[in-house]
Amino acid sequence: MCSLGNAVSNYKTNAENLLNKGQSLKDFVHRFDEVNIMLEGEATTTGSQGKIATGKPGNVIFFPKGKSFTLDNPDYIMAFIVNQRPSLDASNV
């Protein structure tokens, strides 16, 4: 992991955060706002109110802090992810 001010990039694969083909995140809640820009693959999200959206390459998906959602991954997805996180202490990165 490297840090530049408050920008952080995890350039190494973190297997705990990867979804394999056919896996889902059920009733997941982010601790901070997140924006995903879909690059490859397709994912279907279902919000806590039942609203369904399908993300395809070029789509931008916003996940608000504290809101529950389910993400279904029928094949695989690759996305550019931006998070609104609290300030980081560079010594902890």
TrEMBL record:
Cite a single Pfam family from the UniProt record: EutQ
Q: Which InterPro entries does this chain map to?
A: EutQ, RmlC-like_jellyroll, RmlC_Cupin_sf
Q: What is this protein called?
A: Uncharacterized protein
Q: Which organism is it from?
A: Clonostachys solani
